[in-house]
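pinging the channel bc i need a second pair of eyes. not urgent but kinda urgent?? the chain im working w is below, pasted from the shared doc
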Amino acid sequence: MSFPVQATSPLPYAVVLGALLALFWLRLPLAAQVAGVVVEVLLVAMMTPLGANVLVRAVESRLPASKTCTAPEPTTIVVLGAGFDHSPAGPDDYGALRDSALQRLFTGVALWRRIPGARIVVAGGGSRSEPEAVPLANLAARMGVPAADIRIEDRSRTTWENARNVAALTPPVPKRIWLVTSTMHMPRALAAFRAWGFEPCAWPSGVWRERFHWTPLNFVPQGTAVRTAAIALHELAGSAEYAILEWRHARSARQAADQTP
C-alpha cells in the first residue's frame, strides 16, 4: 500500500477529535456535537480488545472457508515478506526480520515438506540495502530447502508489486500456486495475485487475535489492541485501494487486447 500502518491507527484521530470537541464544544451545533461524540466513541471502541477483534473478524471473514484447494494441488509455494524491524547487518541477519515475516516463512517451509517436488518463491524487496527476500531465502536453505528449490523476487515494495513481479519472473512461475501470508493480509494478497493471472490457493500463517475474556479490562483501550486495530483498518483500506487497481489493470488489459491486430 501507499501509506503506512501508522496512518490507520485510531489513536491519533481519537486524540485530535477529542481535543477539537473540547475546544469548540460550545460553538458547535447540536448535530456536530452528536456526530463528534459518536465518532469519538467508535474510535475509542476500536482500541479495546473487543473492538480490535471485531475489525479483525471483518477482514478475516473474506478468507476462504478452509485450507482446501481443488485438484491438481499446486507444487509452487509463494511466500510473501513482511518487512524488517531494523536495517539488516547482512544477508544472514535473520533477527532483523519481523516476526510475521518469520512466521510466514516457517509456514511456507512446513508446507513445502508436505508436498513432494514442491518449490518455494520468496517475494519481498523493500527500500533497505538488503532485499528482504535474500535473508528469507537464506533461512529457508538453512531449514533444509535445497537452493535449487528456491527462487526469489527481490524488487517489490508492495503486495501489488509482489504479484506483478512474480508474474514477470523467468522462467515463468506456474499460475496455480499456494500463497502463504498472514491471515489478515491474505484477502488483499489473493486479490493482487488473481489480478495478475494467478490461481492462488490460500495457506494462511497463523491467526491474528487479541486475547479476550469477559472482564472489564477488555473494554478499555490497550496498546496491543491499538496496533491490531491499525493493521485491520490498514487491510480494509488496502482492499479498497486494490479494488481500484484491479479495475485499472483489467481495463488496461482489455484496451491492449482490443488494439492487438
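so DSSP finds eight helices and five strands in the chain. and The longest strand covers residues 76-80. — does that match what u expected or am i reading it wrong
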